[in-house]
């Protein structure tokens, strides 16, 4: 708010001479001007009643929370602001009845300055909590904490400076001192406009910066609703602070000049009392005591809502335990599906370790190429040994090609599954069952066809039979002599 300036350049009271004693009356216009009985007293009385109601509501909320063991300081701060505005209204009513009493005017404007900073501080506290909940790594960092400490310190120092220069301007006639006072008033108005806008900036940055963790819930209600309440209150306070700062930068208007609209009484009440009572009502209707409350002594990530942090940790640990247990069961019961689920790098890493366990379970992952079988050569009609990629056993012949086809079929079946929940596990098991059954059926059919072709039963002694057949075959020399003509 623009403060009225004291007499400048020797201009003063009657006859153009300054009064002989301080405080000196102002010689320039300010926002709202000097109040009068009509219309200031009726309007100020309405706001007086509204601030009484607002203070009573917030004090009741504060006392109820204290009974429940919850200390929400911001309700007490809002009550303090309402008390400051009650005093402001009372002093303004008294000043309207005695317009020439400079001391009443000084006191009324001091309380106008002193009250609004409480709402600025409340919004900053809420913005700090929202930022720490969204981005704990940034919000709990030392630079961020020091930055907010600097803002709180600046609010206190600035209000002391503004009150000092306001009072001083009524007790000096020095032009140089008045210029310094004006510069400080410009700084103070600009600083408070920036402070009022700061929560809006932090909300926007919180939404734009990518999050690396979940939002830490605190209080009740949705986090989006908290930000909406804070944004609306900050927008209202920014409007009032920006208007007051803008009027400070305009050239001073002499008392005898026509009053511009931005110094009118309507502008004073709209950009001060109306905005402030709306913010007080918003705090009460939005139940900031429940939405923005945090545990006493909260410090560090997870301290705003310890139960939520524990619950999220248990959920994460439970998910990891379920995944580990599921993979163990899959590897034990369905080794082929487990191997198909892994990528190539994992399959190569587990190949040696998996092969030993698979051989115990009756599954051979790789088939060596050093086996052979006795077969009849269709060219010369002789029996000979032919190397094949086959391993003979109780279940018949199993080839490497069949194993490769089996893995491919498992991969296809798993690609169609959802890979999550019971349906995923059923799909994997079903695919593994089908592929294993197909492999066993194909192996059985190949084994039966080979046995029928060679007429070899389960008790066939391969080594003895091979030795006997080789003994019966003529050597190369005997074959040549038998072919010579007699």
From TrEMBL:
Residues 423-454, 476-486 have a biased composition (Basic and acidic residues). The keyword Glycoprotein does not apply. Residues 405-486 are annotated as: Disordered. Keywords: Membrane, Transmembrane, Transmembrane helix. Residues 455-464 have a biased composition (Acidic residues). The chain crosses the membrane at residues 41-61, 73-94, 106-126, 146-171, 191-209, 229-246, 266-285. Pfam families: DUF3112 (PF11309). The keyword Transmembrane helix applies. This is Uncharacterized protein. It comes from Viridothelium virens (Speckled blister lichen).
């Amino acid at each position: 708010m623009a403060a009225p300036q004291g007499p400048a350049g020797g201009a003063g009271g009657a006859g153009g001479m300054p009064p002989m004693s301080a405080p000196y009356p102002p010689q320039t216009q300010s926002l709202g001007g000097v109040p009068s009985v009509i219309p200031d007293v009726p309007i100020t009385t309405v706001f007086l009643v509204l601030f009484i109601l607002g203070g009573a509501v917030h004090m009741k909320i504060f006392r109820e929370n204290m009974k429940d063991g919850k200390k929400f300081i911001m309700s007490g701060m809002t009550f303090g602001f309402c008390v400051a505005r009650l005093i402001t209204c009372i002093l303004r009513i008294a000043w309207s009845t005695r317009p020439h009493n400079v001391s009443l005017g000084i006191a009324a404007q001091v309380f106008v300055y002193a009250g609004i900073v409480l709402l600025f501080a409340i919004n900053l506290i809420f913005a700090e909590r929202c930022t720490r909940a969204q981005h704990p790594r940034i919000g709990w960092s030392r630079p961020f904490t020091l930055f907010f400490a600097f803002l709180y310190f600046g609010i206190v120092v600035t209000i002391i400076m503004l009150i000092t220069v306001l009072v001083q301007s009524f007790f000096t006639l020095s032009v140089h001192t008045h210029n310094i006072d004006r510069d400080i008033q410009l700084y103070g108005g600009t600083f408070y406009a920036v402070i009022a806008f700061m929560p809006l900036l932090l909300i926007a940055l919180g939404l734009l910066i990518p999050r690396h963790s979940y939002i830490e819930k605190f209080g009740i209600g949705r986090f989006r609703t908290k930000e909406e309440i804070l944004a609306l209150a900050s927008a209202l306070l920014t409007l009032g602070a920006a208007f007051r700062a803008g009027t400070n930068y305009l050239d001073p208007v002499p008392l005898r000049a026509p009053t511009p609209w931005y110094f009118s009484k309507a502008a004073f009440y709209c950009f001060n009392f109306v905005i402030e009572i709306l913010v007080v009502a918003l705090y009460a209707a939005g139940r900031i005591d429940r939405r923005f409350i945090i545990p006493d002594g909260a410090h560090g990530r997870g301290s705003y809502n310890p139960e939520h942090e524990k619950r999220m940790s248990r959920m994460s640990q439970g998910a990891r335990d379920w995944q580990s247990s599921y993979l163990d069961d899959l590897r034990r019961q369905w080794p082929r599906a487990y191997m198909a689920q892994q990528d190539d790098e994992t399959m190569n890493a587990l190949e040696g370790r998996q092969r030993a366990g698979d051989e115990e379970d009756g599954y051979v992952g790789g088939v060596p190429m050093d086996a052979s079988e006795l077969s009849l050569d269709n060219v010369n009609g002789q029996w000979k040994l032919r190397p094949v990629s086959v391993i003979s056993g109780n279940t018949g012949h199993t080839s490497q090609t069949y194993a490769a086809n089996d893995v491919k079929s498992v991969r296809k079946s798993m690609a169609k599954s959802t890979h999550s929940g019971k349906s995923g596990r059923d799909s994997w098991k079903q695919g593994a069952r089908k592929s294993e059954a197909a492999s066993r059926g194909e192996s059985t059919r190949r084994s039966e066809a080979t046995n029928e072709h060679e007429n070899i039963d389960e008790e066939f002694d391969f080594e003895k039979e091979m030795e006997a057949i080789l003994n019966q075959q003529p050597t190369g020399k005997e074959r040549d002599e038998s072919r010579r003509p007699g």
